[in-house]
Each structure stands twice: as C-alpha cells, then as structure tokens.
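Notes from the pairing session

We agreed to fold both candidates in a single pass and log them together. This is the raw record for the first candidate, unedited. Please don't reformat it; downstream parsing expects exactly this layout.

Candidate A
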Amino acid sequence: MRIAIIGLPQSGKTTLFDALTGRQDDPGAYAAPGSAQVGVAHVLDPRVAAIAEIVKPKKTTYAAIEFVDLAGLFATERPDPDSAGALRDADGLVKVLRAFENPGVPPHKGAVDALRDLQEIDSDLFILDLDILERRIERLRLSVKKPTPRQEGEKVELALLERCHAHLQAHGSLSRLAVTEEEEKALKCFCFLTQKPSAIVVNIGEKQIGDAAPVACLGQRHEPTLAVAAALEKELLALEPAERAPFLQDLGLAELSAQKVLAAVLSALDQITFFTAGEKELRAWLIPRGATAVEAAGCVHTDLARGFIRAEVISAADFLQFGGWKDCRSHGKERLEGKDYVVQDGDVINIRFSV
C-alpha cells in the first residue's frame, strides 16, 4: 500500500514524512520540484506481540505502509498535470495542513489558515481531475462519430465520463460518485485524485497540543482528521525510548502520534488486518474490508490462491484466550472456511492448498 503525503509549501509535510518513517536527513535535501522520497512505516498492532508470545516464531513481521513525499507539486499557482503521475499511483492521500506559528518559516500566502489551505489543496486536485476528464471526453466525442469496432464501447465510456464530469463540477470531488462494479473497473485506469481515500493531518505547534481548535476550525469532514506536532514528534523519535518517556509525560502524551496517523490512513482506506502464525514466521497483513479468504491467500502468495482448498480460521481474541492453534482446536474455536468466506479483522488464518 502506497500513501502520498501532500501539502502546500511550508506546511511541514516533509517533517511529517520524517516523523512517520524515521528519516532524519535535512528536509530540504530533496526539495527539487518533481523529486520524491519513499519511506516505510510499520503498523505496531499490539495483537502481533501478544500472538508472538504464544507462537514463539523465528521471525515477526508487522504490516507496513509505504509513504511517498512529493516535492513541488503544489508550489505553483496551478498544479502541473505531468508532475501528478506519482500522486495518481498512490492508493490514498494524507493532506497536511499548517496550524503552527513559526516566524522563521513564513506561512503560505502570509498567514496561517488551515481551512483555506485545505480548500486550495482540494481545488488543485479538482483541477487535475477535471483536466484529465475534459481531455478524454474531447477525444471520445470526436472518435464516436467514426464507425469503428470500438464505437459502441467508446459511447458507453463517454456517457460514464460525462456523468463523472457533471458530478465533479457539482460536488468538487468524485469521492461519493455512485458507480456500478463494472463502471468502477472502467474508471480505475484514470486514477482520479478526488476519488482517492484521504486522511487529514493538522500540523500544530508544541503549545497547541491538546487544543481542539486547529481541527475544529475545519468543520465537519468525512475524512479521518487529527492534529500532530510533526516537528516535535520528529525530534522525540530520534531519542531512545527511555529518554523519550519523560518528555512525553510532560506533554501529556501516552505515545508518539505516528500510530494514530497510520490508524487514520487504514480507516480512510477501510483496511483490516489478518495474521498468519507459524513457527517460522508470524506476520500481519493488510487487506480491504470485504476481501475473501482466497483473496487473503493471494495476498500471502499467488500459489496459495491458485491451489486454495480451505482456510483454517481462529479469531485473534480466541487465539489469545485459549493459547494457540492446538488449544483453540480442542475447544472448538477453529473454523474451516471456503474461498468465499469474508475475512474479519483479527482473523488468524492458515491456508490449506495444493498446486
């Protein structure tokens, strides 16, 4: 899973990227327009450590989210469509909004205004999607006039894109456009930015920790939204856990906010976690809510999906309560499920297969 971190100049998006991924380089080291930095953050699900205590695996692997920080995308008055390619490849977005004051870092347009910045980001995403739609619609309107083998298919596509265009113009986003499963597949290749799930991080200063105002000023949002003091979090991340603890206590924080950001991302993308647990490896996997057992098998390895026979399933709660595979089986807590079984968050799964 790849998530793009976006924000206006001086919003602190690169600092947030560093706080999430542990990068400690100079934030300006790769600020050239069009450049990108990629890093990984691990989802420290407490169920992993608890299951590991029972299974005693040789290797433990947490689920990971890949983040990409794109430089210069929103640095100009109008976003460059050609620079948005890496953004379109992302599965979701994190929009970073500045709420902190720092005289040494002049704010965008001379004043700190998170709501204005959010509206500007959303407007830029709207423009990028509108550009793609209008160019494709223009080509299709010319093409459907010609009697070619593709004509009927292009008429269907044109009608769909004209509906998208009208919805985008009316609502400023494609995120709530109602489409059929077939239409969803047809639109997938366009990678519309306003259709991507997103989370919002309001970048606050140290003195704003615990203040609800920076988030409240955005009003009611459908995206998961939280406040993070990114610069402070990056500094604290560089400390050893024992050194970090008293600083967190003084700030009234139980832990760093990185895991809360990851949870917001998973919520926005509607992802759940399942586990494979054996002596060789315990691993957490992320899949979309509603995915089936055979899709979960394919996530682990394509051979498991191709030769799928059945899934042996135990909930994480039962696995922890009864102490592993053997005792869960003796207490009747293991279920045998077929390929159409809808995986639930926290399922511990063993795939039986033959190839």
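Candidate B (folded immediately after A)
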Amino acid sequence: MTSHSDALIIGGGFYGCVIALALSRHLRHVTLVEREPELLTRASLVNQARVHTGYHYPRNLQTAASSGENQLLFAEIFKDCVDDSFTAIYAIARGLSKVTPSYFERFCRQLRLPLKPAADDVRALFAPRLISAVYECREFAFDALALRHFLRDRLAHAGIELCLGHEVAEVEARETGPIRIRLGAGGTERTANRVYNTTYANLGRIGGIDCQGVRLRHQLTEVCLVTPPAPLQGLGVTVMDGPFFSIMPFPAAHCHSFTHVRYTPHVTWAEDGAPAPTPDAVRARAHESRFPWMLADGARYLPILEEIRYKKSLFDIKTTLTDSISDDGRPIAYHRDARNPNLVSILGGKIDNIFDVLNVIESDMVREAV
C-alpha cells in the first residue's frame, strides 16, 4: 500500500466502490479501504435487493420521483446485475394502511409510474377481506454478488488501489494540508488529499471524524430467505402502506426475501448523544428469527404464504437519518468536516441514491477544476 493518495475512500460497500470509480475519472491515485476480506458484504448484501421505482414512497413525492429517475440509470449502468424477470405486485390493505387505492392511483399518475390492475389469478391470491386493491407495477431486483464481481472488475480496470482486510482506526484532518489516516491496531499511517467516509452504520464511529449534525437511527434488521410456492415464484409482492410486508426475488441466493415492517427490525436506537450500543456490538449478538411472526401475520393477507419454505435469515444494521422517519423519505447525508471540507461523510438511504451523491461529487470536481 502506498503512503499517499489523491483520494481515499473508507468502506467497500456499493457506495464506496462507485464513488471510487467516479473519483478515478478525475484523480490519478485513488485508494479504497475495506475492513472485511471482500467487497459488498454488509448492508449492500443484506437487504431486500429492491431497485426502487418510486411505488414504495407514496408519502414522500421527492423520494419517489428521485427513485424513478435513478432506477432507469441503475438499470442501464448495471444491467447485467439486475433481475427484471418477475412481475411486481403492490397491494393496498384495507385497515392500517396510510394510503388508499384512490390516493395510490393518483400518486402513480402524477409521477407517471406504470400501474394497472393485477390479473384475476393474482388478485385471487389475496384475502379480499383485508386487501382493497391489487396492482401490477414495474420494479427490479439487483444481484449483490453480480454487483460485487462487476465492481471488482471495474475497480481493477480503473487502476484503483484496493485494500481489503484493513480497518481505519483514526483520521486526522487539519485546516490545511493532507489528511492523515491511521490503519488498524498496528498504527500504519498514510495521507490523502481527500477522504470519503462511506461506512454506513459506522459513519460516526471512526476516531477523528466529526459527524455532528448528522442524526442517525439504527435498526438491527432480519431478512428471511425463503423458497416461495409456484404461484409466487414469478412475483414480487408488497403489501402497503404501513406495518406490512414484502416477498420478492433475492437474486444473490436464487430465492426470495421475506421482510415485515413490524417484525424485521429487532432493535432500534438513535445516536442522540446518550450512551448507546455500537452497531458492531449489536450485530455480533445471537438473534432469534422472527420468521414465525412474519409468516403468521403475512398469511392473513396472502394465504398462500403458508406454503413458503424457510431457508435462513440474514441480520445486519439498517441506518437512516432520523429526520426521515415521519414521511418515510430516504434522503442522503453529505457532510463536510468543519475543519477540512475535503473530509466528507456520506450516507445513502437507498442503493440508487448513489446517483444523487455522484452529482454532488461531480459538481465539486468541476468547481475545483480537478
């Protein structure tokens, strides 16, 4: 590993990899540091694998509109990592839903999202007593393992220095001069002109990085991997909008993911200045699956769920901005350190938010004529 970089990215998830590629078009020596032995092993892997089109956010038009635009870009750039072979189904619950069918239809028309009534055989899968409307939509899933291979190839082709199995222990940023980075317990040091912190749940956990003002909310979440019965194999189903569930293709494991708004989060806490557990400590604990609870509730709305076969559960930390709780938005955080604006901490709410981040980085590069 060389001692100095034009830019150093901390975190080898999807965001870190794509940001490194973007910076390599402007800077000569870009380094990506990841503490795990492989890329895309945490939150980039443990999630629904949904590429949002916007349907998921009827209570936040800004997030929904951004999702629609970014989904097209994602599907074009990462076309070999996208599964579009299934039919996306959105069902509106009769009780507890925060939107009505008429509102959802109006919302989709406003954003020009493809929407039509689901076929009769699909509607027949749902319990009419609890479901008021069922729609066919257009949505994709991504394959995290395919993304990993794709990004590794692109990083190598771009000449980006990849440092796997190295953890950044501390960052020292002064008003002027290079930023100092200390790696691991051994204290190996190096410098960089720019540092981008993309460590997601650990965004504010690296020594010397001040994320004051970025209010984070963490959840330990469970993604159940299941084998669906034949009638669900070609479908991705979401019952909304409230404490409901989704079952959709999970291409990385050739099965479906099953998640529930009420039961997927096991532990929730905020970084509000009070003593709180670290994300790593919570993740490391043993956790009992809530699959039986998810299944019992979900089968009331979609009775055929009784026929799914449970395979295993994936656990990881989901991190969002606390300000997004009330309206279900997924904004990004792009925080410049008060001492040195070239030390930036980034949090994205969804995988396709990456294009919003890239727009900011590109503006920085153009403004500084790098």
